[in-house]
Design a protein that fits this description.
The chain folds into two domains: 161 residues, Rossmann fold (3-Layer(aba) Sandwich); 159 residues, no CATH class. It is 47% helix and 10% strand. It is built from twelve helices and eight strands. Strands 2-1-3-4-5 form a five-stranded parallel β-sheet. Strands 6-8-7 form a three-stranded antiparallel β-sheet. α4 packs across α5. It is globular and about 65 Å long. This is TIR domain-containing protein. InterPro entries: TIR_dom (IPR000157), Toll_tir_struct_dom_sf (IPR035897). It holds the Pfam family TIR_2.
Length: 357
């Protein structure tokens, strides 16, 4: 059976995270401010709502998007009320937050008082704040961000003219931003809750509890499935979920990787250097073993659950764990002790090793 191939997407320096339903507003922001104003060519912008997008609009949080976020120099999140209701947008936001290259653009009726979860405490730019938008322009100066000279920034006169044009057309464009029944508004968190909202919250309390129970069940299943494999294979699953390859540099890790490869559990790519101390092996799990296939199956179920989980679940999770509920970041794996300590076996794996000797 032929192995499925992944389409390679060209690296783009700016990633635009947004809800697909806000495409018209997002394209206005990108075309007027980023391209015509700052001078960033469309070929450098990853925007799924653009005609030049390398993938179709509304695409799920797939490996191509995860890789694009990881490779981007800047991730601009256009945060609207609808944004918080889109699981894939929230997954992008979590990945960008982990990369520490996130620039959130806050769109009315949202304001600083309504930010929760990942965005709570992060410096955001109000889309109508002229001074803050100038800071966005300054961020793209020819400093560390642009040291490779991947674009030529427009002069301040050009940017100021396009900024005035953008702000002039902003009120009309804001009417096109999709409303959301669940996102907070600029009235703030302290506003009294209406009876309708209160009833809705009461009704949603039980589903959130059920979501937590389902989440914990999937975590236990994943943890148990990973414990059935050698520790280095478990770490390989973590690296792959985070968009990386496992790296074996020291001899003990290479020996473990070689043994797992011999048993059909890992595939290894060897990189050699003129300096033997710099030699390293890159590794990832295979699907040859049923135990490995079990892990992939459970991971897919957990990913699907998290993509569909409610906003309330994700907010509670982030308040509790201080990171997004997505498998594509290392804090998720570390926080739930899914693979134990790097280079060490779990108690069950140690017991199995002792009994086999």
């Amino acid at each position: 059976m032929a192995r499925a191939t992944t389409k390679r997407i060209p690296n783009r320096s700016v990633f635009i995270s947004h809800a697909a339903s806000d495409a018209e507003f997002v394209n206005y922001f990108v075309d007027t401010l980023l391209t015509a104003g700052i001078g960033i060519g469309q070929e450098h912008i990853f925007n799924t709502s653009s005609p030049t997008s390398p993938i179709r609009a509304g695409s799920n949080f797939n490996p191509e998007i995860r890789s694009a976020i990881r490779m981007a120099k800047v991730v601009i999140a256009v945060v609207t009320p609808t944004y918080f209701d889109r699981p894939f947008a929230m997954a992008e936001l979590g990945a960008a937050w982990a990369s520490e290259r996130l620039v959130p653009i806050l769109v009315p009726p949202l304001d600083f008082n309504t930010l929760e979860g990942v965005l709570d405490g992060i410096q955001c730019i109000r889309v109508g704040d002229e001074k803050k938008l100038h800071e966005l322009y300054d961020r793209f100066d020819a400093d560390d961000l642009n040291k490779e000279r991947w674009f030529n920034r427009n002069g301040s006169g050009t940017f100021n003219a396009k900024l005035r044009e953008f702000l002039s057309g902003l009120p009309a464009r804001l009417t096109k931003v999709s409303p959301s029944a669940t996102a907070a508004t600029s009235e703030g968190k302290s506003k009294a809750v209406s009876p309708t909202t209160a009833d809705s919250q009461k009704k949603s309390a039980v589903p959130v509890k059920e979501e937590w129970a389902t989440f914990e069940r999937f975590l236990d299943e994943l943890r148990t499935a990973l414990e059935q494999l050698p520790w280095i294979v478990s770490w390989g699953f973590m690296y792959e979920a985070c968009g990386d390859w496992g790296i074996a540099r020291d001899q003990d890790t290479k020996d473990a990787a070689k043994d797992a490869e011999y048993r059909g559990l890992l595939r290894i790519s060897k990189e050699f250097s003129l300096d033997p101390a710099e030699n390293r092996w890159l590794y990832r799990p295979t699907k040859s073993s049923q135990r490995a296939r079990n892990v992939y199956e459970i991971m897919d179920k957990l990913k699907s659950f998290l993509e569909k989980a409610s906003r309330d679940f994700h907010l509670e999770y982030e308040q509790k764990h201080d990171h997004p509920a997505i498998l594509s970041i290392y804090p998720f794996w570390d926080g739930h002790d899914l693979v134990g300590v790097d280079g060490e076996k779990t108690p069950q794996q140690s017991s199995e090793s002792s009994s086999s000797e």
